[in-house]
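Fold this sequence, please.
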Amino acid sequence: MSQFFSDTLKKLRTEKGISQQELADKVYVTRATVSRWESGNRLPDAMMISRLAKVLGVDGSILFAAVEQSDDCPNVIMVDDNKIILSGGLPILQEVMPNASVAAFTKPKDAIEYIKANRVALVFLDIEMGTISGLEVCREMLNVNPRLNVVYLTAYRDYSFDAWSTGACGFMLKPLTVEGVREQLSRLRYPIRGLN
């Protein structure tokens, strides 16, 4: 797990003389979230690390370096313009990948920005998102990180042929299932430490 980051965060927090709840209040998360960071079960994203550094009065590079040494908590994201699909899919991803930091996005642009700012290992990506094609979003994401594993999610089998030409490594029909996600993890192009 992310022990180096968790030990660093706990040490800095106690040196500052603030409780987990006080830190949570200052960075606008729950105390349980801080507890997960300090127990090594989760890692915060880049924006949150910057907030933590500011609240703790330290150079952000200290916390970013701690994250680098805690690289066994991979970032996984899910992108779908349907909030119901996201709310049903996130618990499944967290169940199958308890060591991963899982985030969700309804807007592809936000997901791409997140990939630019964070080392993301795996994306579950909807193909049809209103006027935006997930096929094009996949190409953009792979331009940012060529070693990104992308698994398409769709309700339409017809997209499967187009999907393979984008560099994705998987294709799933909605809805997400535990078995389906496990099967996709076994087929990733770039194996992910901490997941499989």
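The chain has two domains: 3-68, 75-185. The chain has a mean pLDDT of 87.
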